[in-house]
From TrEMBL, chain A:
It comes from Gouania willdenowi (Blunt-snouted clingfish). Keywords: Cell membrane, Cell projection, Cytoplasm, Endosome, Hydrolase, Lipid metabolism, Membrane, Protein phosphatase. This is Myotubularin. Transmembrane segments: none annotated. Residues 565-594 are annotated as: Disordered. The gene is mtm1. PROSITE patterns: PPASE_MYOTUBULARIN, TYR_PHOSPHATASE_1, TYR_PHOSPHATASE_2. Pfam families: GRAM, Myotub-related. GO terms for biological process: mitochondrion distribution; muscle cell cellular homeostasis; negative regulation of autophagosome assembly; phosphatidylinositol dephosphorylation. InterPro entries: GRAM, Myotubularin, Myotubularin-like_Pase_dom, PH-like_dom_sf, Prot-tyrosine_phosphatase-like, Tyr_Pase_AS, Tyr_Pase_cat, Tyr_Pase_dom.
From TrEMBL, chain B:
GO terms for cellular component: cytoplasm. Belongs to the protein-tyrosine phosphatase family. Non-receptor class myotubularin subfamily. It comes from Gouania willdenowi (Blunt-snouted clingfish). One of its GO terms (molecular function) is protein phosphatase binding. The lineage of its organism: Eukaryota, Metazoa, Chordata, Craniata, Vertebrata. It comes from the Eukaryota. GO terms for biological process: negative regulation of autophagy; phosphatidylinositol dephosphorylation. This is Myotubularin-related protein 9-like.
Amino acid sequence: MDAHIPSTPKEPMMMELLADVSLLPGEDRIIDKDIIYICPFNGAVKGKVLITNFRLYFKSSYNDETVMLDVPLGAISRVEKMGGASSRGENSYGLDITCKDMRNLRFALKQEGHSRRDIFELLFKYAFPLSHGLPLFAYVTQEKYAENGWKIFKPMEEFRRQGLPNNKWRITFINEKYDFCDTYPHVLAVPFESKDEDLRRVATFRSRGRIPVLSWIHRENQAVIVRCSQPLVGMSGKRNRDDERYLDVIREMNHTTKLTIFDARPNVNAVANKATGGGYEGDEYQNAELVFLDIQNIHVMRESLKKLKDIVYPNVEESHWLSSLESTHWLEHVKLVLSGAIQVADKVSSGNSVVVHCSDGWDRTAQLTSLAMLMLDSHYRTLRGFQVLIEKEWISFGHKFASRIGHGDKNHADQDRSPIFVQFIDCVWQMTKQFPTAFEFNESLLLEILNHLYSCRFGTFLYNCESARDLHDLRSKTVSLWSLVNSKSEIYLNPFYSPESGRVLYPVASMRHLELWVSYYIRWNPRIRHKQQSPVEQRYKELLALRDEYLKKLEQLQLTDSFTSPCLSHSPTPNSSSPTSTSSQQFTHLHTPF
Amino acid sequence: MEFSEHIKTANVENVVLRQPLHPPARGTLCVTGHHLLFSDREERGSPQLLLLLRNIDATEKRMSASSGTITIKCKDLRVFQLDIPGMEQCLNIAHSIETLSCLGHVSEMYPFFYRPVDVNLQEQWGLSSPEKLFGQTKEFHDRWRLSSVNRDYSVCPSYPPTVIVPKVLDDESLKKVAKFRQGGRFPVLCYFHRKNAMVIMRSGQPLTGANRRRCKEDELLLQAVLGDSNKGFIIDTRSSQQAQQARMTGGGFESKSSYSCWKRLHRHMEKGRALQESLIKLVEACRDESHNMDRWLSKLENSKWLSHIQTALSTAGLLAECVERDGHSVLVHGSEGTDCTLLISTLAQIIMDPHCRTLEGFLTLLEREWLQAGHPFQERCAHSAYSHAHLQHESPVFLLLLDCVHQLWHQFPLALGFSDSLLLRLANEAYASNYGTFLCNNDQERCTHEVKTRTHCLFKALLKPSERDHYLNPLYEPTELAIWPSVQPQSLQLWTEFFLRWEPQIQHIEEAKKEIKNMISHWGKLVLDDSCSVSLNG
């Protein structure tokens, strides 16, 4: 988490153990108590716990090896009582807390006098505020930042950056009041020649009215990524000429001979969806080819990550680590998502428009379009561009963050919960590993995003869709995560970033080249964590400073002398593409920068 | 020259070369006494392929009436194919390659013919000597001495002529100790820990045998190692069962009764054939072409390579813990004391001693702990993972060391002064080289074959100004602290830069690393040239 709490306090007395906790503006103490934290790595540790309306904070009472916990209540998925008043055995009476962020916490209390009753009830109440009629902390916090992160994404600006509207694509406000499709954003880009009536007719044939709309257009070849939900084909094999015509219009716009429809699901799942009224595009869509990408649904992903948690927390599987890891299938799922996105990006960069959908078009579809866009468009690989990508493809297009994460909701077994967004960030991490100079941001940003995916401190990941956010005045009443990020952006920057606009990144989605993201999934285990993390961060900071100094120098030199020396003009500065070999199959150079 | 006997066809036109990372090319193939050359007919520039025949681990040929294909599998794990027109020519070429790639005589090997223009053979060979090491550590001279008892290699054929031993033992006693240790490898000092005056010793196993023979001088020597301290550790790289069994064949271990101040710790480390087979399995898994790479992780696990790394690192960690944390001297041995013993003493020194983490320090360490200490490179590196030849003494212990160092490099990206491309280079050179450094099995053999006067030294070459830059770690920030590796399987990673090096993706990452390196040096140059305040260490 953040630097609000100094991690190495100087000799706090037992009484003042919690004195050095610096609370966020708007954060209030709820209760504190003597407690024993059953640390899976260090055994039972005596200390004090503090619960506020935002966090659970624990600090051990002995100084020599301070054990500290600082957990946002939003990260808690389940709170249970462990043992009863008559339980025998040491530390058998207490609380068992399951977290959403790959760890569990156990606390033991004195058995006398119902000592856990108050803390259990308060924790339960504040960890799940929505289940108790309380507001999420994002509505309570009084944090102020220099920058307003809500302004990072302006749909019209982003469309203009892509060169839209143009003579083929128009911007429509048909959904301005969210009555056309309540889970879509209020601005949409659609084919120029499709009238609003056409759109309404197509909407009747697409699950939840999520019609095919443009996510991204290739500046040069005008190929597009279009996203939507499944067609409502049903058991009887219904057809809809407007939908067929609409997709063909999309195909014709840049003379794509065959429109590729990527159905993210496994073939069998798509067939099974017919039983519930859904389905997939059949032969009636002439000039279109359908490709199934075999990505499993939210339930499979949830179970896979659960299995991964089982082998990394609290104890990491030692003797058969790799085969256990394999049996979680987590990396295999990551591989399928990445390779699906590669196929999308490849089609588009070779000039063919594509349509991407799954069932509802808000989970796997968001993964595929956003990853493909990250591969195709170097703007999304900058610190701010990445924020735009998340705001656009995930938040505005109705990835159901509230349901998938279960913010403030006590129903831990909710079948709607699933780590789809975590999986996306994992895929991004895999890409940053494979292309160490292609991303302006670093791993810390990805970790920070995932921390706040759960923390409920910012409004960014709250609610399921834009209409719900507007209804609850999210933007005016909460702070955006990007306010925090952009106010201290230096810690999220990759010193080795060297932008090469126009380069398409194709990561290798083979099991041999994918790694488990140990510094996220196993970050709670002190034995796994690399001990030298902080000097590395420090070194990177120095390098960033050095780079800035260098750029300043370079600028001065260029100002004083309009003829830069040949040595400098060929040097690999972060602002000019470096002379790496182009022979590798990994890149395709497009001739016009975006 | 007699190589010509083995070359019936020296040149073939119209050969198609299919190698990783390159499109197929048509050109001329040429076999010489030590090399395989291939060049495009159009270009008169440098050849597309210049391969030491020594690098070839295995060949396979497939014949048809009018042509043949030779698949060549190299010790650097590259696999490529030559389509050769004409069956006879193809058979001739294949025959030459097979014969010349495993010539047995050391003096026929390429390092004896390699004569780069910019260096002459008069240059001093190697970086260090026991004399130099001893000279650098004056503070220990009251208890240690340099002995030339092995000056003619008669006491221990695999030791260098001079070694560091406790002062109290004279050369006659050392000779007696040598008779009591396998291969004559009496305990010698390999590391002084300046912080607490503790040392690491290494040796061969004691030849106690079934009737529990003792050797007074050996006990005296170890007692002298302890000095004032009353406790030392012996790390035996065999399980205690294996150590017991060794007594049946004349070997053994230091018994509690005879060496009362020494505590034995047994850590079973695989070596020899088990290690070689592990490498073969790993490389097989890495080359699995099946489409979905089904069960890659299981195959990686089944190769056991990573668990060998884990054992090596954790045993080295144990050794370093004894010396650095607990403040005890340690003797390390297994049976011969030429493989795992060297592996863990080397790793422990890197963990503890910042000097061993610099480029020069690391190469010096390798010279001392592997070359001078008598790791039999010629036997161990005769073949690599592809060879069908009957395995004899092959074992990738040195490769395992490099991989372990790579793991350290990965876990402590700032702490090592050299780059991981050095490790890759060393992995190549150990198996096939222009330089004489890794020839022969020990110092005595190198002396016999005049390696130090008739070949060039790799380590010297790596430290030349033109080369050394390439092998420096741009992020290096020296630390005096010990670097304790995490040995959890989750912290260990496949050394993709070596094992998957012929895949385009790895090449791409290597290029990115180069780019990063250039960036840092550019920033540094411009900023520091103007003496700005930002400092760039290393």
